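Ticket #4471: structure output looks truncated?

Reporter: J.K.
Steps to reproduce: submitted the chain below (142 residues) through the standard prediction queue, then opened the result file.
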Amino acid sequence: MKQLWIFPFVVLAGMGLSIEAGLLGPLGEKIGHIWATLGIFALGSLLLTFGLIFCRPKLSLMFQQPRWQLTGGILGPIYVVCLTVATPHIGVGLTMVGILLGQVATSLIIDHWGLLGSQKRKIDKYRIGAFIAILAALWLIQ
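Returned output as attached by the reporter:
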């Protein structure tokens, strides 16, 4: 597998999401779920703005893409509000495994049919086995 080097990065990103859930739950309880979401997106936007200053991207390229591709920006705040609301009630572990189950189920469908411009990767017995293992993990962790 040529892209083996990328796996540590995605594992670190997953670790970051769990840390984010652990931080957002209590923050949302103290200041409100929407305010917590707005706060982290404001900080993230500020950091990205500084990054853009140094990278000098071609903003015009973004607006030349199909508009439906920009709708992904709607999903981020929805995801963060869900983290903020769910984590205090069911904990970081159950929240993250539930999210993982949803991610894997949806990604299997996207890959199988080659949706959203992705390359087709057929669902096979190994992928179904992985999905069942995550489903079992969700049941076991609660």
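Triage note (M.O.): checked the attachment and the full token line is present. The mean pLDDT is 91.
Status: closed, working as intended.
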